[in-house]
Amino acid sequence: MKAVIYGAVAVVAAAVGFGIYRYALAPHAPVAPVEQAAGPASEPATPEPAAIPANLPDFSLQDREGNLRSIRSWQGKSMIVNFWATWCAPCRREIPLLKEIQKTQGGNGFQVVGVAVDFREDVLKYAGEIGIDYPILIGEQDGLDAVTSFGMGSLGFPFTVFTDNQGRIVLTHLGELTQPQSVIMIDAVNRVNRGELTPDAARAVAAGQLEEIKAPEA
């Protein structure tokens, strides 16, 4: 059974290149289908990427105690939802940063939740060993279903979602999250919460700032 699940998860990760380090700022609205010109010479339309939903999808997975819990349990919080797995090296590397964010930003209305797409016994063992102190939801196939609820046919890990305190998705990030990136994204969410920016405007501002801090290519 484990081999089957590992294979399914590996396909999801490989679809975008496991270990990619880049950010993804997705639009709110679904993309309209592209109409093709009639006639035999017309080329097939390139599929448009699916859109991230405007609001955090409601899914439920087991928590560490084995209780079914909704991702929307933290009402009024700005959510940082991190999809990860124990076998994912970039996921493991960013966990100390996520712990620090929860420690420093928890009092400012932010809540980190890890969604482990992995085997329950592996997650509990690893979380205990490294001292993950923020909530974790755990699932195998239902964890994969939670990932696809974001409107993406396939994703790699880690994948992190930032919402405002109304549950609206402000930013998404594909790949290992760094401290400078997290500062920009948290600031963007705070500006949305204060009413200074709409989620769309916050995405545009953050995109420019994230581009500025990208490491120069060799």
Automatic annotation (TrEMBL):
Per the record, the GO terms for biological process are: cytochrome complex assembly
**Organism per entry:** Povalibacter uvarum
Q: What is this protein called?
A: Thiol-disulfide isomerase/thioredoxin
Q: Where is this region: Disordered?
A: 36-56
List, alphabetically, the Pfam families matched.
Redoxin (PF08534)
Where the record annotates domain Thioredoxin, the positions are 50-191
Which keywords fit this entry according to its UniProt record?
Cytochrome c-type biogenesis, Isomerase, Redox-active center
Which GO CC annotations does the UniProt entry carry? cell envelope
Localization, per the record, is: Cell envelope
Classification via InterPro entries:
Redoxin, Thioredoxin-like_sf, Thioredoxin_CS, Thioredoxin_domain, Thioredoxin_ResA/DsbE_sf
Named from the GO MF annotations, one term is:
isomerase activity
Primary location group: other
**PROSITE patterns assigned:** THIOREDOXIN_1, THIOREDOXIN_2
**Composition-biased stretches (Low complexity):** 37-54
